[in-house]
Amino acid sequence: MSNAEDNKPSHDQLSSQVFLDLVDSVIADVASECHRVARLGLDRDLEVVEEELRLSVEARAKVADPSNNLETNTKYVVDIFGQSHPPVATEVFNCMNCGRQIVAGRFAPHLERCMGKGRKARAKATRSTTASQNRNSRRNTSDNNQLASGPPGFEENVRRT
Amino acid sequence: MARSVKHSANRPPTPDEDVRDSPERDELTLGEIINIKLVESGEKENLMELVRDRLVESGWKDEMRIACREHVKKKGRKDVTVDELIRVITPKGRASVPDAIKEELLDRIHNFIRSAAL
């Protein structure tokens, strides 16, 4: 391999040549690196991520606006398995306390009344008959005993008069 | 010159080493000599490192990478070859080296050549 010119190349030319040689090496490095990244799909992750982002935004829009029956099932949301759940559980079964057929969604309130746990729900049935006696006997015994021991207000009334 | 030429091999006789040993540097150009001296003295490696550092910190390398990425996007990443990328970015790469870096490098190379007394 010989130079194009026969006479000695100047120092400037030689320096330029060396310099270009160095730059070419660096360029080759960069190209090699980019080639590797491109073929391995490392850099493209950016594009893939953008694509996935776009798809997820689309999917979210589709979920917010349900694609199953638009008129009737406006409250039903489709989950990832494609099942739709009504907001109130509709299954019917028998209450283990009173044996009645209860809708699952209404079971908790039913149990409150059924087992006498609620504050006002249970006392509602007996309030009307013993309302006056309750007011008088509050100082004496607890409410539960009033019926068993007879109208306790009797003694009170007796004492007063 | 040809001591034992085996005509069974159809090739010109291997030139003798002795004749070439004298410092007849006609075969080697000045550029090549300088290159050899650069490598032997280790200066070539120093220069390479210097060039790389300067080009990275000036953002030149990032520009080149962007240019590569653009080309890859056009061509499709599976079809691209290294040669192609080199071919595409070399003109731009050579032209876009900042002047300051170029001056610095040329200066150093100049000094080396002068000190190599050629």
TrEMBL record, chain A:
Primary location group: nucleus
Keywords: Activator, Chromatin regulator, Metal-binding, Nucleus, Transcription, Transcription regulation, Zinc, Zinc-finger
InterPro entries per UniProt: SAGA_su_Sgf11
Region Disordered, residue ranges: 117-161
Keyword Transcription regulation: yes
Classification via Pfam families: Sgf11
Keyword Transcription on entry: yes
Compositional bias of kind Low complexity: 126-135
Name the record gives this protein: SAGA-associated factor 11
Automatic annotation (TrEMBL), chain B:
Entry's localization field: Nucleus, Nucleoplasm
Transmembrane parts of this sequence: none
GO MF terms, alphabetically ordered: chromatin binding; transcription coactivator activity
Gene Ontology cellular component annotations, sorted alphabetically: DUBm complex; nuclear pore; nucleoplasm; SAGA complex; transcription export complex 2
Keyword Protease: no
Chief location: nucleus
Gene3D superfamilies, per database record: 1.10.246.140
GO biological process, one term: regulation of transcription by RNA polymerase II
Keywords on record: Activator, Chromatin regulator, mRNA transport, Nucleus, Protein transport, Transcription, Transcription regulation, Translocation, Transport
Pfam families listed in its UniProt record: EnY2
Region described as Disordered: 1-25
Source organism, top-level taxon: Eukaryota
Tagged with keyword Glycoprotein: no
UniProt subunit comment: Component of the nuclear pore complex (NPC)-associated TREX-2 complex (transcription and export complex 2). Component of the SAGA transcription coactivator-HAT complex. Within the SAGA complex, participates to a subcomplex of SAGA called the DUB module (deubiquitination module).
Function: Involved in mRNA export coupled transcription activation by association with both the TREX-2 and the SAGA complexes. The transcription regulatory histone acetylation (HAT) complex SAGA is a multiprotein complex that activates transcription by remodeling chromatin and mediating histone acetylation and deubiquitination. Within the SAGA complex, participates to a subcomplex that specifically deubiquitinates histones. The SAGA complex is recruited to specific gene promoters by activators, where it is required for transcription.
Family statement drawn from the similarity comment of this UniProt entry: Belongs to the ENY2 family.
Protein name: Transcription and mRNA export factor ENY2
Source species of the chain: Brassica napus (Rape)
